[in-house]
Structures are given as structure tokens and as C-alpha cells.
């Protein structure tokens, strides 16, 4: 007799694994979260935030082919942090506080060890960003993913008072660009990384390549309480060269300019460039080059921003300016 289990889907095993994970999931911030009703959706009470004129900001993203490196090495907890980071950092661009996060994990066959590592990373990322892991979905998909293969994506919702929304409209000529250090490659450009490095080199550099994406939420939100931040760019797809111009995108008469040699570029990027004989343009248009987030602010407030980031353990530099 053919059964769902024989077809490759272990519903009972997944339920048991989820039951073990539930206390961990519920350890993320719970402000605004309503009790679980046993259904397939999470409930959140927006009124608990006491915002007068809230704007909701949402983002969805995954981790891309960094997954292939994690699967090659057999280390997965950082992938969960990456998934949260790619979303909450996007929400932060508008000055919004992340409220809750949902995940989607698809895997070829139930593998509690791998899935638990990923979920532990999701929980860690939600704690770092102060948002609730409100729910998610785990899907066994035999025939779509091979044993040991999986994909993970996420969805985040944040909120900000309308009058405090950061949309770039306040950017002025003379503003400076403060760059916040990345932890390395983050979760972009790994198709190119995997092209230029052999499997042996990927394994040798695993510690550096799998470093989780930095979550900038708490220090940046703390900075904006006392400092005027006119625009924020999360340096992801398209690399530094394509994301920095977004700081001045709302002002057609202005442009964002980078200063050569103004920040420390992690050695991993030089290794990638050398291994692939890549041009600097290729590198700047693909990778963050050591800058995970950039802020445009008045010149006299750059020093306080850098000091606040330093207190949070994030190196920062004046890396450019806004020009006519």
C-alpha cells in the first residue's frame, strides 16, 4: 500500500520536531503577539505599539546560493541569522522597527539536525533585531530537493510613525555618508564566490564565508533617536556601486559620491578578486566590499553616529558625501 510516508513525506516526524522547537521559537520578543489559536497564521496586535499614525513596512528575501556553501560545509545556524538579517535590514532602511518575522523552510527529506540549526539561527536573528518569530512553514518536498538540500526564505513586517519615515526626501548637498562595517560577504554574490573558489578553497575559507550577516537594527534605531538620518541604504544585491546611489535617489539634482580608500576592505574580497581575475567594477557591482549599510546625515552628526556604532561593536567611517 502506498502512503504519504512511503512517498517521502513524514508528517508525524515533522510535528514532533516542531513540538521540540516551539519553546525556542516562543523565546523571541512577544510584544504585540496574540496567543496561538492552533491555526496556520500568526496574530499581532498593532495597537500595542501605541503609534499615532503608523506606516507598515514589509520585506521578503532569502539567502541565495550561500546555502550551497553551508550545505557543503555542514554548518547551518548562521543561515537562519542571514535570512532574518536580509529582511530586517531592508525594513530598517525606512527607519522602521521590525515587529515580526515568518520563515519558510523547504527540504527534500526531514532532517531534524539541519532544520534545528536553521531555526536556532532564525531565533538568534529575531532576538538581535528585537522582533517576534511569529510563525512559519516547513515543507518536505522529495523530488524537488535532494537529501540534505533545503531552501529558506523569510518575510518581515515593521512599523514607523509617518512623520519619522526615512525616505531620502531630507537628503541635502553637503550631507556625508557614514558606512557601517559588514561582517564579510553577508549573503550576496555567492554564485560568483562559488565560481572562483574550488570546493577545497570554500572549505578552507568556511569560517569567513559563512559569517552571518550583521543585523544593524538596534544601533541604527538608537542613533536616530538623537541624530538626523536622511537616508539609509542596505548594501545587498548589486553591491556597493549600485546601492550607494539610492541614498540620493529622491533628489534628481544630487548624487552620492564615494571616497577612495576611506574604509577598511576585508581581505576576503581581495582573495575573491584575485581568484577570479575580476575587475574592481565587477567587485563593486557585486559585493558590499566591507560596507553592510550606509547612512546619509548632516556632516556635523557623523562623529556621534560613528561613536554610537563603535559602542555597539560596529566599525564605521565617513565613506562619501552627497554632492550636486
Structural features:
single chain, 324 residues, alpha+beta, four-stranded mixed β-sheet, 9 strands, 35% helix
How would you portray this structure in words?
35% of the residues lie in helices and 22% in strands. The protein contains twelve helices and nine strands. The strands form two sheets. It has a five-stranded antiparallel sheet with strand order 6-8-5-9-7. Helix 1 packs parallel to helix 4 (112-129) and helix 3 (77-92) runs parallel beside helix 4 (112-129). The longest helix has 18 residues, at 112-129.
Measure the end-to-end span.
Answer: 73 Å
Task: Report the sheet-strand fraction.
Answer: 15-25%
Instruction: List the strand order in the largest sheet.
Output: 6-8-5-9-7
Count the strands?
A: 9
Topology order in helix (H) and strand (E) letters = HEHHEHEEEHHHHEHEHHEHE
Model regions low in confidence, pLDDT < 50 over at least 5 residues: none
Describe what is shown at a glance.
The protein is of the alpha+beta class and 324 residues long. It has twelve helices and nine strands. It is globular and about 75 Å long.
Which SSEs are present, and which pair or pack?
Elements: H1 11-25, E1 54-62, H2 66-73, H3 77-92, E2 97-107, H4 112-129, E3 132-140, E4 150-161, E5 176-181, H5 190-196, H6 199-204, H7 206-209, H8 217-224, E6 231-234, H9 239-243, E7 255-258, H10 267-276, H11 280-284, E8 291-297, H12 302-311, E9 316-323
Helix pairs in contact: 1-4, 3-4, 8-12
Amino acid at each position: 500500500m502506498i502512503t504519504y510516508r512511503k512517498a517521502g513525506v513524514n508528517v508525524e516526524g515533522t510535528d514532533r520536531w516542531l513540538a521540540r522547537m516551539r519553546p525556542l521559537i516562543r523565546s523571541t520578543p512577544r510584544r504585540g503577539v496574540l496567543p496561538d489559536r492552533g491555526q496556520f497564521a500568526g496574530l499581532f496586535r498593532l495597537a500595542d505599539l501605541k503609534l499615532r499614525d503608523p506606516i507598515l513596512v514589509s520585506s521578503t528575501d532569502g539567502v541565495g546560493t550561500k546555502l550551497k556553501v553551508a550545505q557543503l560545509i555542514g554548518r547551518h545556524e548562521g543561515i537562519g541569522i542571514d535570512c532574518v538579517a536580509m529582511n530586517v535590514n531592508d525594513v530598517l532602511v525606512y527607519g522602521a522597527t521590525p515587529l515580526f518575522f515568518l520563515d519558510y523552510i523547504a527540504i527534500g527529506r526531514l532532517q531534524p539536525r539541519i532544520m534545528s540549526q536553521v531555526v536556532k539561527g532564525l531565533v538568534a536573528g529575531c532576538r538581535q533585531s528585537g522582533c517576534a518569530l511569529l510563525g512559519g512553514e516547513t515543507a518536505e518536498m522529495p523530488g524537488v530537493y535532494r537529501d540534505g538540500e533545503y531552501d529558506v526564505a523569510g518575510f518581515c513586517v515593521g512599523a514607523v510613525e509617518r512623520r519619522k519615515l526615512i525616505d531620502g526626501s531630507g537628503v541635502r548637498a553637503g550631507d556625508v555618508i557614514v558606512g557601517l562595517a559588514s561582517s564579510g560577504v553577508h549573503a550576496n554574490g555567492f554564485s560568483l564566490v562559488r565560481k572562483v573558489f574550488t570546493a577545497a578553497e570554500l572549505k578552507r575559507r568556511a569560517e569567513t564565508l559563512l559569517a552571518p550577516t550583521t543585523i544593524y537594527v538596534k544601533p541604527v534605531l538608537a542613533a536616530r533617536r538623537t541624530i538626523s538620518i536622511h537616508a539609509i541604504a542596505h548594501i545587498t544585491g548589486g553591491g556597493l556601486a549600485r546601492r550607494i546611489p539610492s541614498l540620493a535617489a529622491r533628489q534628481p539634482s544630487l548624487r552620492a559620491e564615494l571616497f577612495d580608500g576611506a574604509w577598511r576592505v576585508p581581505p576576503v574580497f581581495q582573495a575573491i578578486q584575485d581568484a577570479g581575475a575580476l575587475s574592481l567594477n565587477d567587485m563593486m557591482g557585486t559585493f558590499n566590499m566591507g560596507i553592510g549599510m550606509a547612512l546619509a546625515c548632516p556632516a556635523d552628526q557623523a562623529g556621534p553616529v560613528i561613536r554610537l556604532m563603535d559602542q555597539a561593536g560596529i566599525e564605521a567611517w565617513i565613506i562619501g558625501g552627497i554632492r550636486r
